[in-house]
Amino acid sequence: MLRQASRLLSRSGSYKLVAARAFSTEVPSTIDSTFVESWKKVAPNMDPPQTPSSFMKPRPSTASSIPTKLTVNFVLPYASELSGKEVDMVIIPATTGQMGVLPGHVPTIAELKPGIMSVHEGTDVKKYFVSSGFAFLHANSVADIIAVEAVPLENIDPSQVQKGLAEFTQKLASAATDLEKAEAQIGVEVHSAMNAALSG
Amino acid sequence: MASNAAVPFWRAAGMTYITYSNICANLVRNCLKEPFKGEALNREKVHFSISKWADGKPEKPILRSDTPGV
Question: Which is it for the CA torsion B38, B40, B64, A167, positive or negative?
Fold first, then answer.
């Protein structure tokens, strides 16, 4: 019975196609009234279907003026490193290069590569070495940064980094299968990044 | 759809993002200084038992553990 619903609805003529829908951050989370009217004409005894967005809480509104501080949530699987901390800027090691995030940054999802993340608060700078992860920058100047492993630079042992770098460079030269090459390449990249972090 | 976007080398080699991310994390953990390294490796220990089911009944479970002697 419901298979015919879309055909019946488009036949009723007053239903506008959804091609020109606004972004979900702009449309308030109310149900489309044109659709509901067409539905009632065709199937008056059935409730209009619910859509996933009607179950969602409305998104936090974007302030009309750019906030002065960036709110950072930096989480690891086993701990919440920073939770709702208000800072001036964070620099994240995105795959596209070091990205500086200020309040009012355009909403972005960035994949992180192994590298240094620094949190700037006034003259205070806190640096972490991040193994990999993602950074979600929202329109309301909230940054959610998630990483699998993040350590302060002081906790890294330079001699082990050098040893690892030598070991993986050697493995890369002698790797046979694609998978071994990929693993060796990852080893070289991570250790080079740690090396650069310690010396930079 | 742009399916000719450049894929990262690990995906071209058949690895998933989770595998890549876990390898990176393990490499970083192995390069930590002493008390932190011990804590990190301790934190990442796993202990679980798997049993296959046949005919609606569990067979003998296989135990996989990082804590010795258990």
Answer: negative
